[in-house]
Structures are given as structure tokens and as C-alpha cells.
Amino acid sequence: MTEEKAKGNADLPEKGTTVLMLGNPNVGKSALFNRMTGANAIVSNYPGTTVDFTSGTFIEGGHTYTIIDVPGTYSLEPRDAAEEVAVRMLRDSPDATVMIVLDATKTDRGLYVALEVMERGMPCIVAVNMMDAAHEKKITVDIAELQRILGVPVVSTTATSGEGVRDLAEMLRKAKVADIGAIAQRLRGEEQERESVRGCGGCGGC
Amino acid sequence: MLIKLSDLPFGERAVVREIRTSAHDLNCMGLRIGKELKMVTKQPIKGPVVVLLGELEIAMGLETAELIVVETGTDA
What we know:
The complex is a heterodimer. Chain A is α/β, with parallel strands linked by helices. Chain A has eight helices and seven strands; from the N terminus they run αβαββαβαβααβαβα. Chain A has helices spanning 3-7, 29-37, 81-92, 107-119, 131-136, 143-150, 165-171, 180-187; strands at residues 17-23, 54-60, 63-69, 97-103, 123-129, 154-156, 176-177. By secondary structure, chain B is mostly beta strands. The two termini of chain B are 13 Å apart. Chain B has one domain (2-71): Roll (SH3 type barrels), CATH 2.30.30.90. Chain A: GO terms for molecular function: ferrous iron transmembrane transporter activity; GTP binding.
């Protein structure tokens, strides 16, 4: 990716659905990106490895997705150049689907920026990555409950081994716009019973 | 007892009660009111303060730590 491209408006290919991968620094966005596209973005164990964006494509169920690996950001109010790139990319791609990547061992921090993205009304899907690290630390993440509260598909993944990546790719088409008001209600336990979801396994598809 | 985060001794735990600086900057890093933290490092000569919040360590300038009020002895 040339510097010029990173600085200017995102000149994204017009083909298929654009998917922006967004999340805190060092949650494994690039590793996940490489897994999904077969690309070779630089991955390291330090926050801030990706400072401009990389894009790649993959085809799932006959649909072409252009995935963009966005630099990690803690919030949508940028505090450094890499975060500015992330915010600008989000602004320049209003029709994109956002794949929010969380670190399973630090979900609460990741959810901060996740909710900021959801407030923008863009269709979202959440990938809870680094599940292997969470298992090692005896941390469990209640994926089904997270999905119920957020109202968007949530998929657990381990980018380094590839676990869950297939599911994530299949769920991309089910990405949905989150309803912030409904999330707040569900958190307060004031959920309105929805007929259609009763007895459903909760795949996030409806 | 309410004290400034910058006065929390090394290795001690406390609960965040008040943020008198940009709450947004700290919130998005995972430091929020009601969260328990542990002092990990205080660097000499006004160096950065590092605290542990659950699984994550965050570092901040001493000036920021001076603007965070924490409660000790809550046994949280």
C-alpha cells in the first residue's frame, strides 16, 4: 500500500461489499485479515503494527468481499495518526460493513469502540478473537449472551489457528445495524419479548 | 479512604471513584469509574504510572494519575 493511498480518500475497489476490520490495537486484526484473504500483512506482538490500511478480497457464498485491515484504535476520537486513518476510513466508507474485532481476554475495552461504531448505524459483526489466549487464562466469553445483548452476530475466533474463521466468513452476510437504545434496554433487563426468536438457537441470523 | 491515584502505593488495590480529566481518553482504555485497579509501577522523577485493570495494564502520565480519585480499603 503506497503512502499516497493511505493519505487520500480511500480509493476502494467498487466490487462487492466492503468490510472494515476495526478494533483496539493488538487484538489480532491483521492475523485475522491474513487468514481470511490469504494475504501477508505484517503481524507482530506489539500494538500499533498496522499504521495504514491493507485491503484484500475473498469470496464467500458467491459474494465478493473487500476486506480492509484498519489500524487499531481505542476510540473514534483520534489521538494519533494511526487512529486518524481508522476514523477517516470509517467516514469514507459509509456503506461498508464493520467487523469489530475484540480480544477475548480484554472484551470490555474493545466494547467501548465497538459501541462507538454501532452508534454510527453501520452494519456490524463482532469477532471475539484470541479465544486460545482466553482459554489459557481460564477466561470464558459468553458469546451467545453477548450476541443477545448487542443484537448483531458474534463469532469466536482464533486467528492464529484459524478456528472460527470459516464461521465468521459465513456470518458476514448477516451483519446488522445495532440498535443502541435496545442494547441499553437489554442491559437494564427491560427486554421486550420478541416472538420470532423464541426457541431459536441464536445464530444471529434473524 | 479517597486519595489521588498518584498517591496509591505500589502493589495496592483501589477502586476508581472520580475522573477529573478527559474521561473519554481513560474510558476507552478500559479505566472507568467503579473499576478496581492495582498499582503496578510508579517511575521515579515524575515518570509514568502503570496500573493493572483485570487483564490489562495501562500506563499514563503522572499529571493524569493526579486527576484520578480512587478509594482504598474497600476490599473490593
